[in-house]
Design a protein that fits this description.
Strand 11 and strand 12 form a beta hairpin. The chain has 18 helices and 16 strands. It has three domains: about 70 residues, no CATH class; about 290 residues, Aldolase class I (TIM Barrel); about 100 residues, no CATH class. The N and C termini lie far apart (about 55 Å). It is about 40% helix and about 15% strand. It is globular, with a radius of gyration of 24 Å.
Length: about 500
């Protein structure tokens, strides 16, 4: 079935050819119209499936063409008809999460993933509750925006949806309702950093405050030795107590969140990721082993765990630290994951960490998950800098003013004193390659997207979105090229040769 060119309404639309799906005597596609993207559904006039969508119908001959807005209701209706648009669980396959703060990056993500020849399982829907707050989006909007991008690119292979950095059962419920399949639990507020400097007497006192289920006698770990491949970990009293005090309440919180998740999910397949990366101090190998041992003891099942590595994983820039130290650290964590699991080691704040990707791929032997977020937003700014440098200059000046306030909730080291002054910049796109400017642009994204002028209109958001929607191929190209740099190291065969 082909769209009828005699239909005048359809002629005013630009069909996105790669989106066309012909299935069971009905045709689905996206079209670019003067008012933005529209869902087009073409079928026989009395086909009941037309009633699933809310839109405007035009009859011609033996066919009816429905033009519909990209609403949540129409997104759900499309998922019922094209089940490959529903996220799935991905298991232990090498995977990558690609956050999208604007809801327009998925086509570029898809194009990059397609060049991985099926060797990397993608998570195309990913956003944390914190990011949702800063962008003003809901988990459902994030899900639907990614789905429309997948439909546009005619993606039919499995993909996941990550409800990222969840802290409460309410967060779980909202994301379950929206269809997420991968749940990242963040127990960071329950990590007790006093353990890092406490003496043995203090550790004993702190341990008494833990739930009875977590007490030393119930762990079965005191004076036990665990062999994890090349690692030998002995849980003498100081080692065990430090791990218990630091992570015990976090483990208990993960356990409670998991019980709620599986209870609410029922027969629906879901996956769990445990994240302890957003803490003040690195996760030692003994502490990782303690976490894994206790989660197993409490019946928790998970597919990936994000430790806090040595060095610094700052937002949007390369790894900061000694690469030899990182290799030793990640190799130990990977050995523990294979011993207690297997499960994947997750690289959080993984955007732009180009110097460590090969190291991580080899150490984990492919049992690895890469999580990115803000780097796709930065590629939107790069696109803007290329197409409208004056507008980008306006945003950059605003970000310089906002940085000191906005950086408080991030671990970043960019300094305003080192950032290029607007008067010094000759090529605005080069700012995206400057360490300090890049971090400044990254952490101020929430302010940029939500700032309003005195008239109540958005100062930047509407113009930025309009520019990206008017130049989708330019944005997709930048995203694709950028993500090929992220993904390619994880599939190179030499990384797994010892």
């Amino acid at each position: 079935m082909q769209p009828d060119p005699s239909n005048q309404k359809f002629n005013r639309s630009q069909l996105i050819r790669q989106s066309v799906v012909s299935l069971d005597q009905i045709l689905y596609s996206l079209a670019q119209t003067p008012n933005g993207l529209r869902l087009m559904v073409q079928a026989a006039p009395h086909d009941f499936r037309l009633t699933l969508f809310d839109g405007q119908k035009t009859s011609f001959g033996k066919e009816t063409l429905l033009s519909a807005s990209l609403t949540a209701e129409n997104a759900e209706a499309l998922r019922t008809q094209l089940p490959w648009l529903k996220p799935q669980t991905l298991g232990l396959k090498t995977s990558a999460g690609m956050g999208d703060r604007l809801g327009l990056a998925t086509p570029g993500h898809v194009r990059a993933i397609r060049k991985m020849d099926g060797k990397i399982a993608p998570i195309f829907t990913q956003q944390s509750i914190r990011e949702n707050t800063r962008t003003g989006r809901t988990p459902q909007q994030v899900m639907d925006d990614a789905m429309w991008g997948l439909f546009q690119e005619n993606w039919r292979d499995p993909f996941g949806a990550d409800a990222d950095h969840l802290k409460s059962t309410q967060d779980i419920d909202v994301c379950l309702k929206a269809g997420y399949t991968f749940f990242t639990i963040d127990p960071g507020e329950f990590v007790d950093n006093r353990a890092e400097t406490a003496d043995l007497k203090s550790l004993r006192n702190y341990a008494q405050d833990l739930p009875a289920e977590l007490q030393v006698e119930n762990t079965g770990l005191l004076n036990q030795t665990i062999n994890a491949e090349h690692l030998t970990i002995t849980f003498d009293e100081p080692t065990l107590l430090k791990a218990m005090v630091k992570y015990g309440k976090a483990v208990w919180h993960v356990h409670q969140m998991y019980q709620h998740l599986i209870g609410k999910a029922g027969a629906r397949p879901v996956e769990l990721e445990v994240s302890v990366d957003e803490t003040d101090n690195p996760t030692s190998h003994a502490e990782h082993a303690y976490i894994a041992h206790e989660l197993i003891r409490f019946g928790v099942e998970w597919v990936s765990l994000a430790p806090r590595f040595v060095g610094r994983f700052e937002k949007g820039v390369d790894y900061i630290g000694d690469l030899a130290d990182f290799e030793k650290d990640v190799s130990g964590h990977a050995a523990i994951a294979r011993t207690f699991g297997p499960y994947k080691i997750s690289l959080h704040s993984g955007s732009d960490k180009f110097s460590i990707y090969k190291i991580a791929a080899q150490a984990t032997q492919g049992l690895v998950h890469l999580k990115t977020a803000g780097t796709s937003y930065l590629e939107a700014l790069r696109t803007l800098a290329d197409l409208d440098p004056l507008f980008f200059q306006e945003i950059y000046k605003f970000c310089l003013d906002r940085y000191e306030e906005d950086k408080v909730s991030y671990h970043v080291s960019a300094l305003l004193s080192r950032a290029p002054l607007p008067s010094e910049v000759k090529n605005w796109a080069t700012l995206l390659d400057d360490f300090d400017a890049r971090e400044i642009l990254h952490v101020t994204f929430g302010s940029v997207l939500k700032e309003k002028s005195s008239d109540g209109n958005y100062q930047f958001f509407d113009r930025l979105m309009r520019m990206l929607k008017d130049n989708p191929d330019a944005y997709a190209r930048n995203i694709e090229q950028h993500f090929l740099r992220h993904l390619t190291p994880f599939i190179e065969k030499e990384n797994f040769q010892k």
